[in-house]
Amino acid sequence: MQTKFTEEQLRDPDNFANEKVFKKCVHCGMCNATCPTHQLLGDELDGPRGRIYLIKDMLENNRKPTEKVVKHIDRCLSCYSCMTTCPAGVNYMHIIDHGKKYIEKNYQRSFFDKLIRYFLSITLPNTKVFRLSSLLVKLSKPFKFLMPSKIKDMIELMPTKFPKKNLPIKEVYKSSIKKKNC
Ligand code: SF4
Ligand code: SF4
Predict the structure, then answer these.
(1) Ligand 2 centroid – CA 25 distance (Å)
(2) What is the number of alpha carbons within 13 Å of residue 83 lying toward its C-beta?
(3) pTM for this one?
(4) Residue 131 shares a structural domain with residue 98
(5) Are residue 123 and residue 62 in the same domain, yes or no?
(6) Residue to probe by mutation, ligand 1, list 53, 91, 92, most atoms within 8 Å of CB
(7) Which of 11, 99, 168, 181 could form a disulfide with 55 if both were Cys (CB 3.0 to 4.6 A apart)?
């Protein structure tokens, strides 16, 4: 992929590192085949190749992120499944991390978005808080019609049942050995 960063832009170490990664991309689109958001939404901009274009365009032109660009970048799950199918070894992880960082610096999110993001950052990494919020979601379901569409979607996605606590791996191994010997 051709790039047109200026010398001044390349003095930024992030731009410098990213330019090398952009140059490796040959636009083949093989990465789209293993991208869950591209598979689900079928939009070029919701796949890795499209996101690489969006981020490159923002960085090269010192462009302020638009709502549309932020939407497509936000939708990236950072699962890096795309990296497993890239024949050119493009380090997409590097690009998306930098793109997200650039957006956080240069885009003013609404108060509501900030609140949701803060809530998710507290809830998702913590099992106890997640289970507790799932209970609250269950109780709030009858009042869902009063809520904004984003919250409604989140309520729909929230699981309300969980598997029993996982056994430690040693126990799983022991019980499988026992079963074999029976
Ligand atoms: S990290 Fe995951 S969601 Fe993001 S572009 Fe790659 S495969 Fe798609
Ligand atoms: S598979 Fe790799 S080289 Fe091909 S478009 Fe995707 S990132 Fe670029």
Answers:
(1) 5
(2) 13
(3) 0.81
(4) no
(5) no
(6) 92
(7) 99
Cβ atoms of residues 2 and 55 within 8 Å: no
Residue 89: give its domain's CATH number. Answer: 1.10.1060.10
Tens-level pLDDT at each residue, the chain (182 residues): 899 999 999 999 999 999 999 999 999 999 999 999 999 999 999 999 999 999 999 999 999 999 999 999 999 999 999 999 999 999 999 999 999 999 999 999 999 999 999 999 999 899 889 889 888 888 888 888 888 888 888 888 888 777 776 666 666 667 666 666 65
Same domain, 145 and 89: no
Structural domains of the chain, count? 2
| 51 and 83 co-located in one domain | yes
**Does 140 lie in the same domain as 61?**
no
Separation of alpha carbons 79 and 125, rounded Å: 16
Which residue among 18, 20, 49, 92 has the greatest number of ligand 2 atoms within 8 angstroms of its CB, and so is best to mutate?
49
